[in-house]
Amino acid sequence: MTAKAAIRQEAESLFAAFRAEGAVPVETDILQTAETLLDLYGEDIRARAYVTTDPLRGEMMLRPDFTVPVVQAHMAHGAEPARYCYMGEVFRKQDSPGTRANEYLQVGFELFDRTAPEQADAQVFALFARLLAPLSLRAATGDIGILMAAVRGLSTTDRRKAALLRHIWRPNRFRALLDRFSGRAPMPAARAALLDHLQKDSPEALTRAAGTLVGLRSPEDIAARARALIDDAATPPIAAPEAALLYDLLSLQAPARAALNHLRGITPMLPAIAPAVDRFAARLDALDRLGTDTETLPFEASHGRTSLEYYDGFVFSFHAADPSLPPVASGGRYDALTAVLGQGRSIPAVGGVIRPGLVARLKGSV
Amino acid sequence: MLKIGVPSKGRLMEKTFQWFGARGIAMRQTGNDREYSGAVEGIDGVELVLLSAGEIPRELSAGRIHLGVTGSDLVRDKLADWPAQVAELAPLGFGHADLVLAVPVAWIDVDTLDDLDAAAAAFRAAHGHRLRIATKYHRLVREFLTKNGVADYQLVDSQGATEGTVKNLTAEAIADITSTGETLRANHLKVLSDGLIHQSQAVLFLARAAEWGAGDRATLATLCARLGVTPPADL
């Protein structure tokens, strides 16, 4: 049997296992409208997806993942609750020569359910853990919802919170903003000079004095941001104890139960995270009931922050011992994505994908 | 024969000829000045190939030429993982140009990439689409913006007259090559204070994918000794 045939056989057996869980098979197009994906992921997706042009439909991308078309299909004509499975190729450009595939099979499972999200999280994780058990992989879990709740609960301006939330998936930039907002990093000289200039006159007068304004960005846009900068300069830094809690949270890494105890310990000082911590606790209870040992399950509060930006709650992945290999499986909760794609409607959703090519390789069948 | 690709016209060609000439290797165009053929004197086993500067990165990547002279900006932008494909033998000290990010001069609230990122977020919320940056250097610009954590922008392709795209409302900002900044100023644009993406100049590159037979290696060693440069150790 050729390698491709062996991988397909592996994929089919995983697919059958998802169907046995009551998942309805979905087929999606390989050619996806580029606009939707660019809107969601930004320019970075262009570096990772194959872009092509259709004479009538415009810019198209070879399917870089299944989540978006599966959510679209569900939002268009799905009944609730729903569970779906799929199997097919995804395409990813690789910018450096190496062993990473540019075309590989994914088998996935997605669960859309309003009633008990933590139960759904646990079900998906337990299902993946069971299917992958023979490979003795290392599991990693996280919860971006706790971090988001902590940011929303900071005693600072909505503008600063929005800036932090917007960069939650870019850890370096998030860190730089937090350093600045909490006074840990000094104001850059360029910003100080800019503020100095902005305080000399009204933004409108300064804009006129600066020269001819060209382009779509209007004088109102410029004045609004200039005023926002002046307001922000007068905003006191995030209080040191509160900032310390957030730094602590960013680096929190412990077995899940121990992480829960730690979070319970800091909740009185950061009460806004209480509902997210309760959800974390409910998820761990559900995982225990489904046979996952949460005393040893690894947890990292920052896990999943560098993936494509849509996970906003529970996140998980399964890794082989060889650190040069990509994750064998990964997934998470993406409630906000369904709202973006649902044009006003939304539904809590969680799911994940397995790479049968890696499963076959680890089993020694290719 | 060791093939060396050189820009086929204009100042880049003349300066390249001068650079080699100063090191005892005479290059010249043969036939009339519209014919793209050339000759090399002063060293044996080297063939001159006159090519469009923009095509030299591709020819290097494919290994159809052994050496080539072109802008460092073009190699970085057109070749994925460029150090794996080519080696820089020598910067030639001419063809200087900076790839910079520029915005309208009247944007009094934007001086740095940090400002650009915040302005892009507000722009997207107000106008319903991402802030557009016109450029032909897609890879260099995207990598630069990703590294600096700028989001909510999109690149729009512009192969020429890029400075005019803002006035024509097809972009809000631009990333382009400038040497004196005059075209930017004439089009009411200013460079961000941390908006220098790449300082480009003409560079003599070596193609790793070219066929390096024993004869070519010997020629390369002679040539490098003549030029005063060191061939890559891992060739």
Could you outline the blueprint of secondary structure elements for this entry?
The complex is a heterodimer of chains A (366) and B (235).
Chain A: H1 3-20, E1 24-25, E2 31-33, H2 34-41, H3 44-48, E3 51-54, E4 58-62, H4 67-77, E5 82-91, E6 103-112, H5 117-132, E7 138-143, H6 144-152, H7 158-166, H8 171-181, H9 189-198, H10 203-210, H11 219-233, H12 240-250, E8 253-255, H13 256-266, H14 274-289, E9 298-300, E10 314-319, E11 329-333, H15 335-341, E12 349-354, H16 356-363
Parallel strand pairs in A: 1-5
Antiparallel strand pairs in A: 2-4, 3-4, 5-6, 6-12, 7-10, 8-9, 10-11, 11-12
Helix pairs in contact in A: 1-16, 5-14, 7-8, 13-14
Chain B: E1 2-7, H1 10-21, E2 26-29, E3 38-41, E4 46-51, H2 56-62, E5 67-71, H3 72-78, H4 82-85, E6 86-91, E7 97-104, H5 113-127, E8 131-135, H6 138-147, E9 153-157, E10 173-178, H7 182-186, E11 189-200, E12 202-207, H8 214-227
Parallel strand pairs in B: 1-4, 1-5, 8-9, 8-10
Antiparallel strand pairs in B: 2-3, 5-12, 6-12, 7-10, 7-11
Question: Would you write up a description of this structure?
Answer:
The complex is a heterodimer of chains A (366) and B (235). Chain A is of the alpha+beta class and 366 residues long. Chain A has helices at residues 3-20, 34-41, 44-48, 67-77, 117-132, 144-152, 158-166, 171-181, 189-198, 203-210, 219-233, 240-250, 256-266, 274-289, 335-341, 356-363, and strands spanning 24-25, 31-33, 51-54, 58-62, 82-91, 103-112, 138-143, 253-255, 298-300, 314-319, 329-333, 349-354. Chain A has three domains: 1-137 and 347-366, Bira Bifunctional Protein, Domain 2 (BirA Bifunctional Protein, domain 2), CATH 3.30.930.10; 138-171 and 239-319, 2-Layer Sandwich (BirA Bifunctional Protein, domain 2); 184-236, no CATH class. Chain A is built from 16 helices and twelve strands. In chain A, the strands form three sheets. A seven-stranded mixed β-sheet of chain A has the order 1-5-6-12-11-10-7, with helices on both faces. A three-stranded antiparallel β-sheet of chain A has the order 2-4-3. Chain A is globular, with a radius of gyration of 23 Å. Chain A starts with a helix and ends with a helix. The mean pLDDT of chain A is 93. With 235 residues, chain B is an alpha/beta fold. Chain B has two domains: 2-95 and 202-227, D-Maltodextrin-Binding Protein, domain 2, CATH 3.40.190; 97-200, Periplasmic binding protein-like II (D-Maltodextrin-Binding Protein, domain 2, 3-Layer(aba) Sandwich). Chain B is elongated. Chains A and B meet through helix 3, helix 8, helix 9, helix 10 and helix 11 of A and helix 5, helix 6, strand 9 and strand 11 of B.
